[in-house]
Amino acid sequence: xxxxxxxxxxxRLVSTADCESGRGTYVHHGYIYSCLAxxxxxxxxxxxxLPIVEVIRQKEDAVPxxxxxxxxxxxxxxxxxxxxxxxxxxxxTLREPFRGLIRKEDVRATEKDRVEMYKCFRPGDIVxxxxxxxxxxxCYLLSTAENELGVVLALSEAGAQMVPxxxxxxxxPKTGSKEFRxxxxxxxxxx
Amino acid sequence: MPGDSRRIxxxxxxxxxxxxxxxxxxxxxxxxxxxxxxxxxxxxxxxxHTGVVSQATGSAYMEMGQTKVIAxxxxxxxxxxxxxxxxxxxxxxxxxxxxxxxxxxxQHIQDNQERDGSLxxxxxxxxxxxxxxxxxxxxxxxxxxxxxDGSALAAAITCAAxxxxxxxxxxxxxxxxxxxxxxxxxxxxxxxxxxxxxxxxESAGDHGMVTVGLLPSLNQVSALVLxxxxxxxxxxxxxxxxxxxxxxxxxILKDCLVSSTRRNVPSLEQKSGQxxxxxxxxxx
Amino acid sequence: xxxxxxxxxxxxxxxxxxxxxxDLRSDGRACEDYRHVEVETDxxxxxxxxxxxxxxxxxxxxxxxxxxxxxxxxxxxxxxLEFFVDCSANASPEFEGRGGxxxxxxxxxxxxxxxxxxxTLDLTALCIIPGGQCWVLFVDVLVLECGGNxxxxxxxxxxxxxxxxxxxxxxxxxxxxxxxEIELSDDPYDVKRLDVxxxxxxxxxxxxxxxxxxxxxWEEELCSLARLTVGVTQKxxxxxxxxxxxxxxxxxSIYEMIxxxxxxxxxxxxxxxxxxxxEENSKREKVGFLG
Lengths: 191, 284, 291
Hints:
The complex is a heterotrimer of chains A (191), B (284) and C (291).
Chain A: E1 6-7, E2 12-15, E3 20-21, E4 25-28, E5 31-34, E6 38-43, E7 52-56, E8 69-77, E9 81-89, E10 92-103, E11 126-133, E12 140-143, E13 150-153, E14 163-164, E15 169-171, E16 178-180
Parallel strand pairs in A: 3-7, 10-12
Antiparallel strand pairs in A: 1-6, 2-5, 4-5, 6-7, 8-9, 8-11, 9-10, 11-12, 11-13, 14-15, 15-16
Chain B: E1 46-50, E2 58-64, E3 67-78, E4 90-97, H1 112-125, E5 137-147, H2 152-166, E6 176-183, E7 186-189, E8 207-215, E9 220-230, H3 232-264, H4 268-274, E10 279-280
Helix pairs in contact in B: 1-2, 2-3
Chain C: H1 10-21, E1 37-41, E2 49-55, E3 58-69, E4 80-87, H2 101-115, E5 127-129, E6 133-145, H3 150-164, E7 166-168, E8 170-174, E9 180-184, E10 191-193, E11 201-208, E12 211-214, H4 218-223, E13 226-232, E14 238-244, H5 251-282
Parallel strand pairs in C: 4-6
Antiparallel strand pairs in C: 1-2, 2-3, 3-6, 5-6, 7-10, 8-9, 11-12, 11-13, 13-14
């Protein structure tokens, strides 16, 4: 196999007649250009006539987008909301955290009116959440209203790492006491 | 003048001994060559390197003759100051001359020239960066001139653009900077510090210095600064010379970026081994 | 820079761009027309020279104060010129506190750039004792109202104020021991004037759509991503040039913009000179500048 082509930002790749523009590229006057320094990659998708051309660079830095799954650490919990520091976007670890916010009504999909924030999150918990919107100038708005989203790692009052026992409870292996959390049903992600 | 209380500043009104000596000659040697033996439209040797600051998201180092510039890029990160919500990202630039970079010692606090330079570099880079790809976050670019031997602003533009590309910030194009010094009829590309425009030395006639930032593959000018007095035709001619100078530096920048990508970014074969998609490496 | 002053809807933007395309702007001007300019000099009595200028809705007040100081060691035979721009909160609430600082720095850098040449203003005329004493001209620009095209308005006002500046005559005498003494003339009318013939004016060309306009109103400034500020002298020399804004320009349009900048700048220079001379000869009684 020939060595993959390395391109730099602004390099003209192919005509839009031959390919569709994918990640890391942009279209200008009927041609696809690269906007990253990385490897050019063409890929055929089922049900599409034209292959997609992408430029891939591992160091690509992610920012949270609407719909992306983020990992965060709970920093504070109040009656109406829970604040967290977003440390990962999808599978990229961020160098610096972004601020996120889970409102009371976005914690779970059912019985939204009966959510009690203190029974869902505690400071220090690691949560998986989906970005609902870019929010305001300060925070991203996050939601855990899916079975797969919520607390994935939490420490008990005794300081031990708890194991989930139901969607709303976690148990401390040391003392056996149960604590309330909005537990995520962790799924193995397909590589 | 407000001083930085955390540092011990030298005496405010001290002078380097050069001040009292003979002023340096600006003019070229007889016989059409310049002091360092270059032709009028020759560039100095350029050296570029990426990934010099390991803490930063991306970084670059540049030498143009004796001019040495280092740039570090951080981000995209959260906008620090309380500002309004924007769907576009923000770019912040800070240009600093190291205190020992020039003949005259510079202060730690950003002076007017540095502030002006920061703005020029920022406006040179802004058209090139896809700001809509990182809403409500900012990318910080810090540029330090380690040694100023002329054309520092042009070098800062090129170096910052290389740093951004190394950081993997999405860009429409890279930016290349280049300067021209106009002295009477003569046009010197990529002037050294002795050839640079100094308003106090000049007399009548066409004289000035032009710096251009070019997006080479889109053929767009993103920065243009002219100091001094030039006739309209001369000014246009100087801009054209700058553009051709930029196009001379572009292949070097491109080579540097390609080789650093090959070196630092894991190649596609390993990646397509992991993924189950029917990956096909394109070669056009 | 003017993004602080308001926002424009897409429809408004399109209206302006289409108008510029047809050489007819929303206030009826063609692309290379200036708005009405009013200039008045000698408006503040405590200064050595002052001017107030109104360009459309942009309102500038400039005061020049001459003080004595030490020259730069690098240029012992020259006086100094210092620019300070103040975007007061009068012009826009956005400028409150440090809000106007960024814009103020931009404007003073632009002024510095066009004055950054020996042939602009004869600074040697400001020398009193070489290496010892010189005149320092503090040019303070106060932005009272910001209605677009700030750079041009400021440069016009600065030139008018410098034209109006009168520096007291001083006599240097040396006593027997070689000690030099500076003596100020007793006659308040015994003054020196500055030669401002070579002082450039800034012409800002804003790229809107595929064309460019001079003297953009603030609505038009919001439509333009890239501007070129060109310093133009009376003789049509380009004195300082800078691209501003977050957009880029293609080389061909830069050459066109420089050309029309020169054309407009020469006319502007001669018109300002006419107006200043006419005002000086008219001997009209001054009745406060906001009248």
